[in-house]
Write a structure and sequence with these properties.
- The protein is α+β, with helices and mostly antiparallel strands.
- The protein folds into 2 domains: 66 residues, Orthogonal Bundle (Arc Repressor Mutant, subunit A); 75 residues, Gyrase A, domain 2 (2-Layer Sandwich), CATH 3.30.1360.40.
- It is built from 7 helices and 6 strands; from the N terminus they run H-H-H-E-E-H-H-E-E-H-E-E-H.
- Strand 1 and strand 2 form a beta hairpin.
- Helix 5 runs antiparallel to helix 6.
- The protein is elongated and about 55 Å long.
Length: 150
């Protein structure tokens, strides 16, 4: 059941510009699947779906896997389209995103497996990145700033 639902979700987001979990639930219901918001939230995490800004100016779910085989390229695209600012204090890098984009950026950043990063935590529009040292935080801060579109 889960694998069938996952396949259907991937099909739905490839055919329609889906902006919300409620839209996924509705389209699944139309296809004969029953799912709760909590189930869809887990499915989104399992499928590594991210929201990205479309050419129409609206955010939509896409499969992070479909963006690129190299996770760094997907990260760079998502980061540049979602991040407002980057700053650091001691060994913490603070990344500010557009509202609702921090989780997607954080998940994508985690997939790059940077050895200087101890861990990350994301809210709605803010990400804290704990680095191994103040020096590595400063280096990460500078390298991330190059992706921000001015």
């Amino acid at each position: 059941m889960k694998s069938g639902r996952h396949a259907k979700i991937l099909e739905i987001i490839s055919e329609y510009p889906v902006e919300t979990q409620d839209e996924i639930i509705l389209r699944l219901k139309e296809a004969g699947y029953k799912a709760t918001q909590a189930t869809i939230s887990r499915d989104i995490k399992d499928l590594r779906l991210v929201k990205t800004l479309g050419s129409d100016g609206k955010y939509r779910y896409i499969s992070d896997m479909s963006r690129t085989a190299d996770p760094r390229n997907g990260f760079e695209q998502l980061f540049s389209g979602s991040v407002v600012s980057v700053d650091c204090a001691q060994n913490i890098v603070v990344i500010k995103t557009f509202s609702g984009m921090a989780n997607a950026v954080c998940a994508s950043m985690d997939s790059t497996e940077n050895a200087a990063v101890v861990g990350t935590i994301a809210g709605d529009d803010t990400i804290f990145v704990a680095c191994r040292s103040a020096e590595s935080a400063a280096e990460l801060n500078e390298s991330l700033k190059q992706y921000i579109i001015k």
